[in-house]
What does this fold into?
Amino acid sequence: MDDTKQLEYVGFWLRVWASIIDTVLVLAITTPLLLAIYGRERLAAGITFSGFANFLISYIFPAVAVLVFWSFRQATPGKMAISARIVDARTGGPTSVSQNIIRYLGYFPSTFVFCLGLIWVELDKRKQGWHDKLAGTVVVRPKRGNVEPVRFEA
It folds into this structure.
């Protein structure tokens, strides 16, 4: 039986939920580290670029973690919680490292103009945000309802 008939595109609100899960997990790891290094008062003062450790823990660590999860699991923990995975939009196969990097960097232009590139997920037939379109990816999960079936070109 064709696997694509068993998949559906993952829409905006499920992806928001997955993002909330990922954010909570990242904060649960990074906040105690930052508190241990910088202290409560300095963090409460809102000093965001307070040193190399802050840059490493707040920006580099989350980016590397996301790219590692996408490369080895096709999903972050939040996407895994909703049974979603990121696949190549053309073949339905795993994404390449370059696709993952482009997808991650694609979040920046997706958020610049009132997050329109993220909201685009709700408007697009294949539920692709701008970051997905730039990278040639789609987010899918096992089919659960009467929704648009997944189609791959290859």
Notes: The longest helix spans residues 12-38. The radius of gyration is 17 Å. The chain has a mean pLDDT of 90.
